[in-house]
């Protein structure tokens, strides 16, 4: 694979600049999105609400793959990172609402915490774009 086959999308999140990362990276037939929370700009949506944070975070991730012309039907893997085990049902409900029709493989992890203590959920997804050329 040549570097021409790799494309990166920035969201404007300040952590991307701090870490030297991208919101989404397309490489070959895969588009990867990681480290996505319920922040939009400086505003954290759903503060204290794991369901709302999961829904907004996955919506942000879906918008990132939208930059490559993909939607929910292209999602093949998701990951949810939760700050608290008590939030499994709420975050799972948001996931089911968004992805029930496509049923990606999913990993759910409880982590020690996030850089911003108000964040309860961080998500990742992987999408498949088939034979689309970069």
What's the structural blueprint in terms of helices and strands?
Blueprint: E1 6-9, H1 14-19, E2 24-27, E3 30-36, E4 39-40, E5 43-44, H2 50-66, E6 75-82, H3 88-99, E7 105-110, E8 121-128
Parallel strand pairs: 6-7
Antiparallel strand pairs: 1-2, 2-3, 3-8, 4-5, 6-8
Helix pairs in contact: 2-3
Salient structural properties:
alpha+beta; 60s Ribosomal Protein L30, Chain: A; six-stranded mixed β-sheet; two-stranded antiparallel ribbon; 3 helices; 26% helix; 31% strand; globular; YjgF/YER057c/UK114
Description of the structure:
This protein has 134 residues and is an alpha+beta fold. The chain has a single domain, classed as RutC-like (60s Ribosomal Protein L30, Chain: A, 2-Layer Sandwich), CATH 3.30.1330.40. Helix content is 26%, strand content 31%. It is built from 3 helices and 8 strands, in the order E-H-E-E-E-E-H-E-H-E-E. The chain has helices at 14-19, 50-66, 88-99, and strands spanning 6-9, 24-27, 30-36, 39-40, 43-44, 75-82, 105-110, 121-128. The strands form 2 sheets. Strands 1-2-3-8-6-7 form a 6-stranded mixed sheet, covered by helices on one side. Strand 6 (75-82), helix 3 (88-99) and strand 7 (105-110) form a beta-alpha-beta unit. Helix 2 (50-66) packs parallel to helix 3 (88-99). The radius of gyration is 14 Å and the shape is globular. The protein starts with 5 loop residues before the first strand and ends in a 6-residue tail after the last strand. The model has no long low-confidence stretch (mean pLDDT 90).
């Amino acid at each position: 694979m040549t570097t021409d086959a790799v494309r990166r999308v920035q969201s404007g999140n300040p952590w991307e600049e701090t870490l030297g990362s991208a919101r989404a990276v397309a490489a070959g037939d895969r588009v990867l999105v990681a480290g996505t929370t319920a922040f939009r700009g400086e505003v954290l949506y759903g503060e204290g609400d794991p369901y709302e944070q999961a829904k907004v975070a996955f919506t942000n991730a879906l918008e990132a793959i939208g930059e490559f012309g993909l939607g929910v039907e292209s999602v093949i893997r998701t990951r949810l990172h939760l700050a608290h085990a008590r939030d499994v049902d709420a975050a799972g409900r948001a996931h089911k609402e968004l992805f029930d029709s496509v049923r990606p493989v999913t990993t759910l992890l409880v982590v020690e915490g996030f850089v911003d203590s108000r964040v309860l959920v961080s998500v990742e997804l992987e999408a498949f774009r088939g034979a689309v050329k970069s």
